[in-house]
Amino acid sequence: MAGIVLVFDFDKTIIDCDSDNWVVDDLGFTDLFNQLLPTMPWNSLMDRMMKELHAQEKTIDDIAEVLKRAPIHPRIVPAIKSAHSLGCELRIVSDANMFFVETMLEHLGLREYFSEINTNPGFVDEEGRLRIIPYHDFTKSSHGCNICPPNLCKGMIIERIQASLEGRKKIIYLGDGTGDYCPSLRLGKADYMMPRKNFPVWDLICGNPLLIKAEIHEWSDGEGLERVLLQIINMISVEENKDNSAQLISVDCKLQTISASNQALPQALPVPQ
């Protein structure tokens, strides 16, 4: 199914929690996080929290082990592998960070299934501290979107993906949060939006569904995600096969017209069954 690009959010879509909160809470820094939250953007706060973790001698391995315990619905991994086996291209657009996302994907055996990860850079510096920096450096300029947080506009990433696609490829976007609303507005009529029901992006879409050009198919948990996603992929496959059959019929009609005006072609021999 080379004509489909799946774009996944990460937190509360692939894993069943917010990875930032999961790490902060598990390592015992919830109170400090809540104290600092009103004073700075979320992305900057997570970089500050990594500084505090390092100061308290929490290592990169400690963080990785916490991430590996993050909850995930048992049908998510099979759903991703099934979609990939059907020929879909898989990408991630997330407001988490590269270290968190790659650590989880590698733990789940899924890293190789994704051709692209778009998220905030996360790397280990020379002191062994995890640094988290914004995808878009809002200290230098604004990305210009008043819907998205200052560090990342997912809608702009979707537009870049759309511009890079060749042919008649369709996008299926899966997400749950407020940040997934902007990209849903950028999808076209041939695309599909899969919001997680009763989560923020679902509420925003329900506020005015007519703003969304794409077909909307909700899901509630990993089992629903798998079922709905594979149904959409199958539906697109059926439509593509119909289009291909129609093209073959058209070509066949042209060949019949040509052969009628020239010497008849020899009849094809039946192939033994």
From TrEMBL:
GO molecular function term, any single one: phosphatase activity
Gene3D superfamilies the UniProt entry points to: HAD superfamily/HAD-like
InterPro entries assigned to the protein according to its UniProt record, in alphabetical order: HAD-like_sf, HAD_hydro_PyrdxlP_Pase-like, HAD_sf, Pase_PHOSPHO-typ
Bilayer-spanning residue ranges: none
Sorted UniProt keywords: Hydrolase, Magnesium, Metal-binding
Active site residues of this protein: 9 (nucleophile), 11 (proton donor)
Keyword Hydrolase: yes
Cofactor: Mg(2+)
A Pfam family assignment: Put_Phosphatase
Binding site for substrate: 20, 95
Residues that hold Mg(2+) according to the record: 9, 11, 176
PANTHER family in the cross-refs: LP01149P, PHOSPHATASE, ORPHAN 1, 2
Protein name according to UniProt: Inorganic pyrophosphatase 2-like isoform X1
Gene coding for it: LOC111280453
